[in-house]
Amino acid sequence: MNRGALLFAFNSPKYNYYDMAVATAKRINHFLDIPVTLVTDSESLPVKQSYQFDNIVMAPADKSNKRDWGLWYNKGRYRAYQFSPYDETILLDTDYMVNSDKLLTTFDLPTDFCCHDTTSFIMHPDVSQEVLSVYSFKTLWATVVTFKKTQRAKQIFDSLEMIQNNFDHYASIHGFIAATFRNDYALTLATRIVNGHTTPIEDVIPWNLLHVGKNTSVYKNKDDEFNTEYTVMFDNWNRGKIRKEYITIKDMDFHVMNKENFMELIHE
Amino acid sequence: MDTTSLIAEAKARFNHNSAKAYLKDKYDSKFIVADQTGLWRANLETLNFLNASSDEWVILIDTFNNPVRVNRVELLEKLNGTYKTVMESWYKEWIELEKKR
Fold it and tell me: Chain B contact for A252, CB < 8 A?
């Protein structure tokens, strides 16, 4: 069984996802000791490459999605099954900061497909879990997906494609806004369709996905390439004033929602 | 700017409760062990049951709610090792955290 990680990186006018993918790939190699395949397009791939990916799969980006901050080329994640050269794959968002070997445990889970269903926000302990809509399901997260090359995993990715192509329809049924395509929502629905409209407990990674969310910034404590110690600073609004609060964290993976912050972390 | 200066300049306060919550999040996940086709949590309940039993083979409900027949001693050794390692690291970090009060 060969194992590896898969990253999708399509540069948008605002963010250089290729640079993010390189930084994340180096950390995957260092902490997980597995190869990384990149899915990208010719516009994102620089002529001179400082890092050697295990494989580079060239695929056109679907540029039809946008969100509040601009264009967002996140569609086409369903091609992960087709593009992964590995028997067992960790599909990661490029803005996921790997700081430990914890993700390797997902290969040992007795399932062929798993992702997170619960999140924690650093310094925001009481944030409620995201739902598709008030009368729909709790969201699964496409940030980290581990899958094996099985028929069921393929069906989930096929369903993901179907949902992406008919996102308005599913948004209408489940009562969420269709204007921005979300892989998290599509994944939630795809796994339910394939699993007889349930989410089997086996398909859930048994720990929380850690987010760095709003009003929160992360700073490296050391300038090493593979630093694992960070200071997390939070703007706590209290009676109309901001009070800065901080904690230090180490050896803990986290997902940085603020792309500028992630770029600062990899470029400092 | 280094983080120590950043904290001083921002007059930031160390948030003990958030740090405690982060530690729990971090170490909770490390108690999970895949062994003998089941997924286990190295918690006191499971350890106590395995310790208290004298049978070579026992059937346990794993974290996915599946009944799994396991070699008791092998699982006990593995979970015991995990529990000790994780708790020692957690305790060490907790002591560091307490110093920041």
Answer: yes
Q: How confident is the model at residue B36 (pLDDT cuts 50, 70, 90)?
A: very high
**Which of A210, A221, A246 is opposite residue B15, by nearest beta carbon?**
A246
Task: Report the residue from A110, A221, A236 with minimal CB separation from B37.
Answer: A110
Q: Search chain B and give the residue with CA nearest A201.
A: B64
Look up the ipTM and state it: 0.87
Phi-psi region of A175 (alpha: psi -120 to 50; beta: other; left: phi over 0): left
- Averaged pLDDT score across all residues of chain B: 93
Q: Does A122 touch chain B (CB under 8 A)?
A: yes
DSSP A204: B
Q: How far apart are the first and last CA of chain A?
A: 37
pLDDT tens column, A172-198: 999 999 889 999 999 999 999 999 998
Chain A residue closest in CA terms to B4: A221
> Is B37 near chain A, with CB under 8 Å?
yes
Per-residue model confidence as pLDDT tens digits over A131-162:
999 888 999 999 999 999 999 999 999 999 99
Q: Do residue B34 and residue A220 have CB atoms under 8 angstroms apart?
A: no
Angular region, B85: left φ>0, alpha ψ -120 to 50, beta rest: alpha
Q: Which residues pair with A147 in a beta bridge?
A: A89, A113
| Contact criterion met (CB below 8 Å) for B80 and B88 | no
- Calculate mean pLDDT across residues B66-75: 96
Burial track B69-99 (b if 16+ CB lie within 10 A, e otherwise):
ebebeebbebbeebbeebeeebeebeeebee
| Whole-angstrom distance, CA of residue A218 vs CA of residue A252 | 13
Contact status of A234 with chain B (Cβ, < 8 Å): yes
Q: What is the pTM of this model?
A: 0.93
A97 reaches B (C-beta below 8 A): no
Distance from C-alpha of A128 to C-alpha of A119, rounded to nearest angstrom = 9
How far apart are alpha carbons B76 and B63 in whole angstroms? 16
With a pLDDT cut of 70, the percent of chain B lying above it is 98
